[in-house]
Write a structure and sequence with these properties.
Layout: E1 6-12, E2 17-24, E3 26-35, H1 41-45, E4 53-57, E5 61-62, E6 81-83, E7 86-87, H2 89-97, E8 102-104, H3 108-118, E9 121-127, H4 133-141, H5 152-156, E10 162-164, E11 170-176, H6 181-188, E12 192-198, H7 203-209, E13 213-216, H8 227-236, E14 242-245, H9 247-255, E15 259-276, E16 282-295, E17 301-306, E18 312-317, E19 322-325, H10 340-347, H11 352-362
Parallel strand pairs: 3-4, 4-6, 5-7, 6-8, 11-12, 11-13, 13-14, 14-19
Antiparallel strand pairs: 1-2, 1-9, 2-8, 3-9, 10-12, 15-16, 15-17, 17-18, 18-19
The structure holds glutamine (GLN).
Length: 363
């Protein structure tokens, strides 16, 4: 396949326009963020939580072990563009097929330093023969802030319910706010059946499903734009065990009297240390978020905290059977320290815990 090498510019909200090498042509815009993950580029690029963002890899060589379909977390690439010091041709071919602009031969240390100092910022990108800095500036001028993407749930969610069979251990209603595929497989591998439901699923639809767990997935943008998922949590708390991952934790907290706020540049990477406050144990986690729970409210307790900056990484109310994580316990790419979360979630199910233990014992 012919690989395009063309002009490229990225215009940053701080006023700079930086030249790069064009690898996949196109014009686009988004919130410029970075991940420090040195592995897992296929998983990151297909994580729906990156919708409407431009993803910079701080690790300098991206693509050195190819692109394999079984490692993808959804059916398309979600960032609007990708930025690296150097992309291999494998990744460029994949991004070209996906029509996602890509640029490299740019000083990503400098970009990351700017984002760390000034916060995640809007950017505009123009890639192609004869593009000008002005083209990138025009894209930047059209860029919306993350919280202005009020319909972002619709962009990433399933339109109709989908059913994934596990083994009858429990029925999980997973509200798809942009779920990574490995959240579904982490549940089915443990014997649970998963109903993957649209982000705007109604109270009566949940009532007719009568699930054993209501699970709010990860997803992109501002959790304030997922009001219907919060309504489900308000309605069913205390009646159905509730779980949440990442955006799911934020939605659950907001529904139960807590607040969320935007972080300066967020956490994105695969080595974020998290301490469990009860056991004192520290685990390494996969993360991708730009918002955080500022105040958990009176109903939830903070059970885990980020060792670097103390932000809330786990929330719970044992009496009401609510448990959430800010990081991605399903990992992918890893590390796999946190997969036990899914056992804890299924352990909340009425008799599900016993059934599950039996299913494991029978294996
Ligand atoms: N991975 C996620 O679910 C991200 C949650 C939310 N969009 C944030 O940026 O904080």
């Amino acid at each position: 396949m012919y690989l395009v090498m063309s002009d490229a510019y990225i215009a940053l909200a701080d006023g700079r326009v930086v030249e790069a090498r064009g690898r996949v042509p196109g014009r686009t815009r988004g919130e410029l963020v970075f991940t420090t993950a040195y592995t897992g580029y296929e998983e990151s690029l297909t994580d729906p939580s990156y919708e409407e963002q431009v993803l910079t890899f701080s690790y300098p060589l991206i693509g050195n072990y190819g692109v394999r379909e079984e490692r993808l977390e959804s059916d398309r690439v979600h960032p609007r563009a990708a930025v690296a010091r150097e992309f291999t041709d494998d990744v460029v071919e994949w991004l070209a097929e996906e029509d996602v602009p890509a640029i490299d031969h740019i000083d990503t240390r400098d970009l990351v330093t700017s984002i760390r100092e000034e916060g995640a910022m809007k950017c505009g990108i123009a890639v192609g023969d004869d593009v000008t800095p002005e083209d990138a500036r025009e894209e930047l001028a059209k860029c919306k802030g993350m919280s202005e993407h009020v319909d972002i749930g619709k962009q990433v969610s399933v339109d109709e319910p989908e059913h994934y069979t596990g083994g009858g251990v429990a029925d999980v209603a997973l509200v798809d706010c942009g779920a990574k595929g490995s959240i579904v497989s982490s549940l089915t591998e443990r014997g649970a059946d998963v109903h993957l439901l649209p982000y705007d699923t109604t109270v009566s639809e949940i009532e007719s499903l009568d699930p054993d767990v209501l699970f709010i997935s990860n997803g992109p943008g501002d959790p304030a734009n997922f009001e219907q998922a919060a309504t489900l949590v308000e309605e069913f708390v205390g009646e159905i065990p509730i779980a949440g991952i990442c955006l799911g934790q934020q939605v659950v907290a907001r529904a139960l009297g807590g607040t969320t706020e935007k972080m300066a540049f967020g956490h994105r990477g695969v080595n974020q240390p998290v301490m469990d406050l009860e056991t004192g144990q520290v685990v390494m986690t996969t993360q991708n978020h730009g918002y955080t729970v500022a105040d958990p409210g009176d109903t939830l307790n903070v059970t885990q905290r980020n060792v670097n900056d103390d932000t809330a990484e786990g929330l719970a109310n044992e009496d009401l059977d609510v448990i959430t994580r800010q990081y991605h316990p399903e990992a992918n790419p890893g590390p796999h320290d946190t997969l036990g979360f899914f056992d804890e979630v299924l352990g909340m199910v009425g008799h599900g815990g016993d059934k599950q233990r039996k299913a494991v014992a029978d294996d």
